[in-house]
Design brief:
2 domains, binds uridine-5'-diphosphate, seven-stranded mixed beta sheet, binds flavin-adenine dinucleotide, 11 helices, 16 strands, single chain, alpha/beta
């Protein structure tokens, strides 16, 4: 008999299992994929750590999460500074003085502020959706060039149908600073993400190719409690309907060239290019290999059975989620955690924070 059956070997499941083991608890981790790590999974190809589920840059302002991760691995000094490619013209991201200078030929913060103020006047009152929020932050030119096309591809709907919170993830700065994040700490784990996962799961039994929902009756009584990190609506067999998700398709290619695009992340912000970004993995770790690997990221509609990469989190889904959350709270032996279990657009640090808080409450009670 196990103390905990952990469903899913992503960061939430791994951190919980690791903490539980430290407290002398016995865990079984089940994972439906052929590998551990969830979406941070990397494969090493020609010495390059290829992020198999999209670019993963670790960033946080939570010093205890940063210390926790640094006790497991070392980080390099990579700072994410992607560029946007709009019909072949390059702009710096996130939206900052470099972007405004490239867009308008202006030089000073005051000139940028005046330009944006004149364009944002079309928005009256509090922004009610992503389009209004974007225009009120950066004006119509930046919205049309760098946001509208990318966002409509990424989310598969018009910007006025999306929550304003999605665009508030990105900094807007009146300084010449291309750092994509505002956090105090940032980097890529040296050696990739897999050694972190291996350390967290050291000494813990893992069963791959095991879908809890398909083998529920055989698995559910193997442990006192279940920590479930899959989709909450799937757990309840979509009884109240489906939550809204977005999926992705990744196309990875090996190229016989040393340097394909000169940067780790290039966003394609026009509507016509079918992918949203191209990742060149070696640049996360300043690689000097003679070959390179690139991944094109294509947004995709989500249908049952597809990987649910992004919770959409519009008002309707939030309402439905609250109903599922009430059902989840009533499941006495089951705890729901992680990006899908909590239906939250969590970055890695937030998932680790959530798993550590949950572990502390569960294991010391
Ligand atoms: P997951 O990683 O999704 O792990 C859940 C695991 O559970 C999966 O392995 C899944 O196969 C398994 N599972 C699900 N259902 C079942 C079942 N029924 N039976 C058995 N196993 C099951 N965060 C950042 O901080 N920085 C970034 O740059 C960044 N980039 C991202 C880019 C993309 C394209 C995506 C999609 C996410 C990105 N994130 C980033 C977010 C990051 O991936 C998540 O915060 C984190 O990986 C979530 O961990 P998790 O354990 O909650 O979920
Ligand atoms: N976004 C955009 N243009 C860009 C990059 C991002 O319009 O060049 C918008 C888009 O709506 C995206 C959101 O900002 O979904 C958040 O971007 P982020 O890079 O945080 O998304 P993630 O890495 O989670 O996919």
């Amino acid at each position: 008999m196990y103390d905990y059956l952990v469903v899913g070997s992503g960061l939430f499941g791994c951190v919980f299992a690791h903490e539980a083991k430290k407290h002398g608890k016995k865990c079984l981790v089940v994972e439906k994929r052929h590998h551990t790590g969830g979406n941070v999974y990397c494969e090493t190809m020609d010495g390059i750590h290829v992020h198999m589920y999209g670019a993963h840059i670790f960033h946080t302002s939570d010093s205890s999460v940063w210390e926790y991760m640094n006790s497991i691995t070392k980080f390099n000094n990579y700072v994410n500074s992607p560029v946007a490619n709009y019909h072949g013209k390059i702009y710096n991201l996130p939206f900052n003085m470099n972007t405004f200078a490239q867009m308008w030929g202006i030089v000073t913060p005051q000139q940028a502020a005046e330009k944006i103020a004149s364009q944002r006047s079309v928005i009256k009152g509090e922004p009610r959706n992503l389009e209004e929020q974007a225009i009120s932050l950066v004006g119509t030119d930046v919205y049309k060039t760098l946001i509208k096309g990318y966002t409509e591809k990424q989310w598969g709907c018009d910007c006025d149908q999306l929550p304003a919170s999605i665009i508030r993830r990105l900094p807007v700065r009146y300084t010449y600073n291309n750092n994509y994040f505002n956090d105090c700490y940032q980097g890529i784990p040296i050696g990739g993400y897999q050694p972190i996962i291996d350390t967290l799961l050291d000494g813990i039994e893992v069963r791959l190719h095991t879908d809890f929902l398909q083998e529920r009756s055989a698995l559910k009584d193997l442990a006192e409690k279940i920590v479930y990190t899959g989709s909450v609506d799937a757990y309840f067999d979509y009884k109240l309907g489906e939550l809204a998700y977005r999926s992705l398709r990744f196309e990875t290619e090996r190229l016989e060239t040393e340097n394909f695009q000169g940067i780790a992340v290039m966003n394609y912000t026009d509507r016509e290019t079918p992918y949203t970004r191209i990742i060149e993995h070696k640049h996360f770790e300043f690689g000097t290999q003679p070959v390179t690997y690139i991944t094109r990221e294509y947004p995709a509609a989500w249908h049952r059975g597809d990987e649910a990469y992004y919770p959409v989190g519009d008002a309707e889904s939030q309402k439905l989620y609250r109903e599922y959350a009430a059902m989840a709270a009533a499941e006495e032996r089951v705890i729901f955690g992680g990006r899908l279990g909590e239906y939250k657009y969590y970055d890695m640090d937030k998932v680790i924070r959530s798993a550590l808080d949950f572990s502390a409450a569960e294991l010391t009670s």
